[in-house]
Structure formats: structure tokens, C-alpha cells
Amino acid sequence: MSTKEKTSQELLLKEEVKTQNEIVLYNDDVNTFDHVIETLIHACEHTAEQAEQCSLIVHYKGKCTVKTGLYDDLKPRCSVLLEAGLSAEIV
Q: Does 2 map to a domain?
């Protein structure tokens, strides 16, 4: 592989990494575990187990990345979380 090909591949990889965003869900004192779990299943297409694990991480750590992907995919998902009364943002 030539140096030019290697550099091109490295740039593509860096570009791919940059396009990945995350939805971060934050803890609050308002929403129940059941509500958070149901909303994650609906908005982020989590399994029940994934949603439960994320809700526990949020509860104990204060926040958790609940979905990673392209911004255009995450934006409507984050909107669903916010409309459900959860505290979330895309980073």
C-alpha cells in the first residue's frame, strides 16, 4: 500500500469517527424507571435489557450514552426522549 493510499484511508477513518454522535441521557428526580425504560425501547430501539441497564447507569452515574450514530438519525430519537420528559442531548 502506498503512502498516499494509507493517508487517504486514515482521513476517511477520521472523517467516519467525526460523523458519529451520541445521545446522552441525564438523571432526573421526576421520571420513573418504567417510563425511562419504555421510552428507550420506543425511541432508541433498545431491548428491555439494554433499556434497563441504561436506566440504572443513568440513576447511579448521572448520565449514560444511550445511542450512537449519525446526527440525522439521532435528532428525531432525541426529540422523542425530550417530548417524553427525559433530559437528553446530542453530543
A: no
